[in-house]
Amino acid sequence: MEGIVQNIGHFLPKTQEMETLMSELARVSSSEKASVEDCGIALLKTHSSHIEECYLTSQLIQHHKKCVLQESTTSV
């Protein structure tokens, strides 16, 4: 029985170290997951802003063309 206790005592520090490392891994993993989710949200917002920018640019180009056409027909 004493041999078993000695063997368990030998592995106890390793077990405690492993528990600490697993706890740290869980904390880091949770933090990384939150960061990935934040990046996904930022990417969606960026995509939406890009689409809006493209739309507004096309509207501006169309308006500019319309103004140029009106000027050319008015000056003739």
Automatic annotation (TrEMBL):
<dbReference type="GO" id="GO:0005880">
    <property type="term" value="C:nuclear microtubule"/>
</dbReference>
<dbReference type="GO" id="GO:0008017">
    <property type="term" value="F:microtubule binding"/>
</dbReference>
<dbReference type="GO" id="GO:0051225">
    <property type="term" value="P:spindle assembly"/>
</dbReference>
<protein>
    <submittedName>
        <fullName>Protein ENDOSPERM DEFECTIVE 1</fullName>
    </submittedName>
</protein>
<dbReference type="GO" id="GO:0005737">
    <property type="term" value="C:cytoplasm"/>
</dbReference>
